[in-house]
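Hi F.,

I've been meaning to write this up properly since the lab meeting, where we talked about keeping a consistent format for the predictions we share between groups. The idea is simple: the sequence comes first, exactly as it goes in, then the structure tokens exactly as they come out, then a line or two of notes. No screenshots and no reformatting. I'm using this chain as the first example so we have something concrete to point to.
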Amino acid sequence: MTITRRSETAPEANRAWWEGLMEWPLTGAAVLFLWAYSYPILNPDLGAGARAFAEWMTWATWALFALDYLVRLALSHDRRSFVRKNLVDLLVVVLPLLRPLRLLRLVTMLSTLNRYAGSNLRGRVAVYLTGGSSLVIFVGALAMLDNERGRPDANIETFGDALWWALTTVTTVGYGDRFPVTGRGRLIAAGVMVAGIALIGTVTASVASWLIERVREEASVETP
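Output, unedited:
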């Protein structure tokens, strides 16, 4: 039995070592991807050489994420369970051709920040709220501008317009002065809406948890 347990836990230990080793390189790759993705969008007059380099950079980061996923899968004792628990990572690898979905790689940055936020619930929520909302607004604006600019009847033609649209959408205000006119743009908008609702739900749950904790503390002090 002892030998069996060791054989079962050794792959998981190796996977944990690999994940610790690749944590910051993958975060750096996500940052590089964000630059490579956003720079050509924010500079539409960019030369062909610079644009090709940025495109190459996005594929290089994809290759690194694919390598990381395959190594972690190979080092897992229960590979089916690993796939089920890491569906976002799998989407990052198998859907590289869908340009807006490449932004899923940026989840790596939030995962790293969350890990270093400590075990305190409100610390984690603060990280997700600050980092998550900023990331969703910025990349949502980029994706929308990349898709809508130059389309017939489009009203999102500048990054300022796209940023305003993303901000009003994430906060569920929705003024309606800026909106997508294409099918893909509406899909991007749906994703930003869902992300905004999730962020608001996270904040609401955190506030509720904090209030319950305070009530319990007051009750314990008053109880003789």
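Notes:
The first helix runs from residue 2 to 42.
The chain has eight helices and no strands.

If this format works for you, I'll send the rest the same way.

G.
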